[in-house]
Structures are given as structure tokens and as C-alpha cells.
Amino acid sequence: MLDSDYKKAIASLAFIKVNWDRYRYDYIDLFLPFIATLFVKNKYEFVEELPDEIKRLTKDFKNEFGLEIPYHPMITILNRARKRGLIKKEQQKFFPTEKIYEYDFTDKAQEQSRKYEKIIDFLIKFSQEKYNKKIDRKTAEEAILDYLKHHDLDILFAGYRNSVLPEVGKISNENIFIFCKFVEHSYKKEPEIFSSFLDIVIGHILANVILYSDEFNNFASPKLRNLNLYLDTRFIFRLLGIEEEVIQSAYLELLKELKEEQVNLFIFHHTYDEILGILKGCEYWIENPAYDPSKASLACKFFKAKGYKQSNIRLFINQLDRKLKKYGINVIDSPEPSKDTIYQIDEAKLNKVIVETYKSYNPGFEELEKTFTIQKDIQSISSIYKLRKGNKPLNVKQAKYIFITTNTALACAVKDFEKQEFENNFYVPACVTDTFIGTLIWLRNPKKVEIINTKKSLLMFILP
Predict the structure, then answer these.
(1) Domain range holding 12?
(2) Which of 41, 70, 105 is the last residue of a domain?
(3) Under DSSP, is residue 367 helix (H, G, I), strand (E, B) or coil?
(4) Fewest C-beta atoms under 10 Å: which of 13, 20, 317, 372?
């Protein structure tokens, strides 16, 4: 196998994607070749179903493949291996069977190693030729892992938040910039390199899902028909094209998939008012001599960069209702404050958790500047709890109502609030990320995963 934990982890992610392409089973089955290879290579006679023995197995797994699989997900993998006949269980011991050799991928790992080495070689060459910056292999590996870890919580916010990936040192802003440009260049000019990198990105998504253990099946199994999704302001802006074109393309693709799943799409009226307020602010400031880019909204900066005038933004505002209707997004009032008060959450406590979470993500976070936005988000989330009427849904179908945000920190804060406020059972949070709901759909439609993720993975490098 490969030498460093970084190399092992990246190659393992690529191999997870290979398994996905080959078998099209669910995400648990993707790990069977790994457990088979571990049994064969380490010549296990048996593994006892005892905490210390399973922990030893997880340690061996990390040493061999570079991925950190915790205790409970490892039990899930072992039980699936038993179900598939790779191992058998007798007297609380897991014994390998002859079938385990069919899944051993020791020889196949070399192909992924070569693809991985090619990505690293190309990144080093790109950095030198394009930016006259010499980076070594370790730095290149760290740049890839840093990017992947940066997006861990897009999936993991609702459950176990430790990454499957090894820790990396702090990456300089210059190296992050170079890596992002490398991915953009590969997407446009080097399709083979980009395809290999995309395998790693998709493998990372699938690897993160295993951390939910069996709980993710509760999320993903039911059909999504008639699920009611309430979208946040930035989701709408991205649909409308108020960011880069590739971002709009990715969100339009996700919207299409949501409609095919027959979900119902809404924005609360207060979200609509927020959207309208931001757009009218853009109209006011776009040609104002006192315009200050340091204080401008992202939308206003976008319009300014595109050369929009007041008349252009006024037309944009006038077309808003028509575009929402075209996308099948309905504007709906939030529940009345005086009704269903038994389901009213402690909004002050939620506000406190959100602010604390934002500050933990960004020590320079300015609470006063974001007070209005936070209050709108709290209003949306509080409305979801009222609509659920105390229901603690185990899957998205039971949830009926979910707020979709592009803000991972907000989703984390809501989940932390739920842990503090309610019993600590696992259920679908009131607020989930757009990436999370997209992943649910992608895993239910394996043939579509690569098409959607090509756009999704690219836009991740462009988003602030």
C-alpha cells in the first residue's frame, strides 16, 4: 500500500468511488473490499465482538487505509460483511470465510495509486509553471485533504462530526488559492486529471455518510414525495444567478432533482421580504457616489462587477415573482405567533447558540452586523418547529417540513440547539444544508451522482 496517511486516505477515497461505480450498492457495501483486504493482509483468524477488539480493528483500518472509522460504523460494516457472507459469527467472534478473498483489492489498489500520483505531479507542476511557486508532495497532499476537510460538516453537521480523514497542518492562503486555481484549470483543460480528482471528492462524500452508521438509511430510504422544503435567501440568489454562472448551474440541477422527487418548494414570506429588501438596497447603492464595497452585500458586489445599472436591477426585481413561479417556488406565510404556542421554541436560546457557533467558526464575526439576518433565520427555523407540531422525525418523509440553508454553521448551530433543548435521540433536524439534501438524492440515484457532483465539486472552490 502507500506510505503516508495522506496518500493512503486520498487513494482510499478514490477506491470508494471505484466501488460505487462497479457495484452500485448502498454506501455500507462500499467498505466491504476494505474490511476483506484488512482481514486477508493482517491474517486475522477471528475478531472478537468486544470494544477493545473493535477499537484495535479501527486502528488497523486507519493504519492500512488512512481513514478513521469509529466504533459504531465499524460494527455496521462488520454486520454487513456477515450478511454478504464474507465473515461468519460464532460465539461473539467474526471469522473470515473463503468469500472474503473475492473482495480483497490489494492488487487493484496500485491503479488508484498511479492516478493519485498523477494528480499530485500535475498540481506540483501547475504551481511551479503558473505561479512560480515550488511545493513539495506533502504540501500538495495537505492541500487536497484541507479542501475535503473544509467541507466535512456539509454532510456531518447532523451527527458524528469527526472526519474520516487524517489531521493536516495549517495551509497558507497562497497554497489554498493555487489549489483552487488548479482545480478550475483541470476542469477546463485537463479532463482526465479532473475526473480522477472528482473520484476523490465523491469518495469523500460517500465516506462521510458511513459515519452516520445505520442512521443515514433512516434519512435516505423513504421517497421524498410531498416533503416540504423551505429555502433560504442565498439558495434563491444562487438560483437567480446572483453569483457565478457555474454556481447557478449547480443549483438549477439540484432544483431539477428536487422537482423530480416531487418535493414541494417554498420560501417564507419574511424570506421573500428579505430578498426584496436586499435587491432594493442594491438598486439604491449601485450608482450611488457613496457606494462602499467594504460595506456592500454580496449581491450588490455581484451586480457592480457585472456592470449593472439601476434600471437593470429594477427589471430584475420586477421579474422576481415570475422567476419564482417558473421554478415552482411558492411564497407562504409563517405560522401565526399566537397559534400553536405549545410548540414555540426558545428563540433567545437559539440566537445564543447561533452566535456562539458563528464565533467559533470565525473569531472576527461581528454580531451586530448580522443581527437582522440571524433573526430572519431564527424566524424560519422557529416556524419549522411549529409546523412539525412536536414531531421528532426519524426520516425525511416523517419530517414533512425542513429548512434548507447554504450556511453550514447555521445547520450545526440548530443541531446543537436541538441536543440541548430536546432528548438526545437521533432525528432529522429542522435545518439541513443544501449539500446534505442533495446527497440524499444523489445516493438514491447512483447514475446521476457524477453529473451533479461535477458541478457541485467545482463550485465548492468558488464559494467564499
Answers:
(1) 5-105
(2) 105
(3) coil
(4) 372
> What pLDDT score was predicted for residue 234?
95
The grid cell for 172 is 497558507
pLDDT the model gives residue 214:
55
CATH of residue 249's domain is: 3.40.50.1010
- Specify the pLDDT at position 444: 65
Q: Are residues 370 and 420 in the same domain?
A: yes
Same domain, residue pair 338 and 302: yes
* Distance separating alpha carbons of residues 339 and 294, to the nearest angstrom: 42
pLDDT for 453 beyond 70: no
Q: Lowest mean pLDDT of 147-151, 279-283, 383-387, name the range.
A: 147-151
Q: DSSP H helical segments within 242-297, as ranges?
A: 245-260, 269-285
pTM beyond cutoff 0.85: no
Whether 300 and 443 map to the same domain: the answer is yes
Rounded to the nearest integer, the mean pLDDT of the chain is 84
- Structural domains in the chain (count): 3
Dump pLDDT digits (tens) for 52-92: 899 899 999 999 898 888 887 888 889 989 999 999 989 88
Q: Which of 10, 97, 16, 3 is nearest to 449 (CA)?
A: 16
**Residue 337 phi/psi, 5° resolution?**
-60, -30
CB 109 within 8 A of CB 15: yes
pLDDT digits (tens, 9 = 90+) for 373-389: 999 999 999 999 999 99
**Angle, alpha carbons 307-309-310 (nearest 5°):** 155
Q: Give a yes or no: residue 464 inside a domain.
A: no
Picking from 72, 105, 138, the residue at the C-terminal end of a domain is 105
* C-alpha grid cell, residue 85: 457472507
Q: Look at residue 321 and tell me whether its pLDDT is greater than 80.
A: yes
Rounded CA Rg of the chain: 24
User: Is 351 in the same domain as 406?
Assistant: yes
Report long-range pairs for 288-296 (Cβ below 8 Å, ≥24 apart): none
CA torsion sign, 357 to 157 to 259 to 392? negative
Residues 360 and 409 in one domain: yes
Q: Does position 209 have pLDDT exceeding 80, yes or no? A: no
Q: Taking CA 241 as the corner, what is the angle to CA 434 and CA 269, rounded to the nearest 5 degrees? A: 65
For residues 95 and 241, membership in a common domain is answered with no
Domain of 73, CATH number, reads 1.10.10.10
Whether residue 410 is found in the same domain as residue 346: yes
d(CA 344, CA 254): 32
- Lateral strand order in the sheet of 87-90: 47-48, 93-96, 87-90
**What's the pLDDT score for residue 445?**
63
Instruction: Verify that 448 and 325 share a domain, yes or no.
Output: yes
